[in-house]
Write a structure and sequence with these properties.
about 250 residues, Rossmann fold, seven-stranded mixed beta sheet, two-stranded antiparallel sheet, 11 helices, globular, Epox_hydrolase-like, AB_hydrolase_fold, AB_hydrolase_1, hydrolase, hydrolase activity
């Protein structure tokens, strides 16, 4: 799997991993600051962005893709930042290559299996768009609005809608993500804990990291530290990029 990626800056390597429905651009506000001091590798995960599609979509697959990309670039040691689903990819990466990960930074995600279906309305909206011949972006937003009330979520999704010779299409693999949704929400702990430097950054208003998850976090990441960003939700890095960048830089310098 040859992932699409963007490399910026010089210095020690830090890998940025986006979440579900995202792309390399989603952590761009972090990359803009980090590239002043690091070589920043921003990846499109498989089934997202400009990377290839595949029916195989386990966290082991996603993490191995990144290892293969770094091997191709002859990068041995690196730091990693993962948001949401990308956080689980980053955690899996630390299990597959623990000696290569210097700092592990997880943005608003816990190493647990989440219950319920958090994205049913999103998938329904994406499928609704696919059922129509879209010639204008605002047509797609109108179909999404039937199921997705939040205009911010609609605009986020529309970043992955691109014009082709046959009309507008989603860059991410809608049906592949639906098929693998249980895997995306699930979690299989590694056989050995990751004892490296680890930081979990939580959005105060988000429910992705809750107090009852502390035992699971500390069992799998015994040296983990935590930081809460006040008055932010799941998209903390977009809501308060300066704050999140400051927290990340302080941790990287430890």
């Amino acid at each position: 799997m040859n992932l699409h990626f963007r490399a910026e800056g010089k210095g020690k390597t830090i890998v940025l991993i986006h979440g579900l429905f995202g792309s390399a651009d989603n952590l761009g506000l972090l990359a803009r600051e980090l590239k002043l001091h690091y070589q920043v590798i921003s990846v499109d995960l498989r089934n997202h962005g400009l990377s290839p599609h595949s029916d195989l979509f386990s966290y082991q697959d996603l993490a191995q893709d990144i290892i293969d990309t770094l091997d191709h670039l002859t990068i041995d040691q690196f730091d990693v930042v993962g948001h949401s689903m990308g956080g689980k990819v980053a955690m899996t990466l630390s299990a597959l290559a623990p000696q290569r990960v210097n700092h592990l930074i997880i943005l608003d995600m816990a190493p647990i299996a989440y219950k319920g279906h958090r994205h049913q309305n999103v998938f329904t909206g994406l499928r609704e768009v696919n059922h129509h011949a879209i010639t204008k972006r605002n047509e797609a937003e109108q179909y999404l609005a039937r199921y997705i009330n939040d205009p911010g979520v609609r605009q986020f999704l529309l970043k992955s809608l691109v014009k082709t010779e046959t009309g507008y299409q989603w860059r991410f693999n809608v049906e592949g993500l639906i098929t693998n949704y249980a895997t995306i929400m699930g979690w299989q702990p590694a056989s050995q804990p990751f004892i490296g430097k680890t930081l979990f950054i939580k959005g105060q208003l988000s429910d992705y990291i809750e107090p009852q998850y502390r035992d699971a976090i500390m069992t799998q990441f015994p040296n983990a530290k935590a930081h809460v960003v006040a008055n932010t939700g799941h998209w903390l890095h977009a809501e308060k990029p300066d704050t999140v960048n400051r927290i990340i830089n302080q941790f990287l310098n430890q």
